[in-house]
Amino acid sequence: MEEPLSFCKSLLVSYLGTMSGMLVSYYLGKTVGKPFLYRFGKWVKLTPQRLELAEGWFKKYGLWTVAFGYYVPGVRHFTCYLAGVSGVALWRYLLYAGTGALIWCTSFLTLGHLIGVNAPKIMYVVHHYMGVSALILAGVLVVAGLVYWKYRKRLLARRQHQQ
């Protein structure tokens, strides 16, 4: 008997879901454009300055922004919206967005599968080495704090000396 959520079925469903959301964003950008963002962007904390920053990023990196924007929460739909606003041809958009979506879905499903299959081993290692890990982490944080404090103290002394 096949398990109900096999890797291939999960990949297909997550890919189709991701692409349908991205196509909605693309077509919204293509049909309603930037005026919509300027008018209603404030409701999602999208100021004209943030819009200019995102547009600059999109102009600099082009459709690669769409492909790798998947890994930045809150950015993925906005980059697709900008692709629509910019008038990118649908086939080019589908090539970059589809590739990015496939990589994104595959990487997270693989990560989830590896963690799920190895969960008992991972929990054992975490539980077994929790004390040692906490001590090492505390030591690293103390050293980092001391280095920062010394650096800041030296920086303030230089500023006072220059005045």
What's the number of extended β-strand segments? 0
Report the order of strands and helices. HHHHHH
Query: Taking Cα atoms only, what radius of gyration do you get, to the nearest Å?
Result: 23 Å
| N-C termini distance | 78 Å
- Beta-strand content estimate: under 5%
Biggest beta-sheet profile: none
- Uncertain spans, ≥5 residues at pLDDT below 50? none
Structural class by helix and strand composition: mainly alpha
Number of domains: 2
Overall description:
This protein folds into 2 domains: 7-117, no CATH class; 120-163. 83% of the residues lie in helices and 0% in strands. It contains 6 helices and no strands. The chain has helices at residues 7-40, 48-61, 64-68, 76-85, 90-117, 119-162. Helix 1 packs across helix 4 and helix 1 (7-40) packs across helix 5 (90-117). The protein is flat. The chain starts with 6 loop residues before the first helix and ends with a helix.
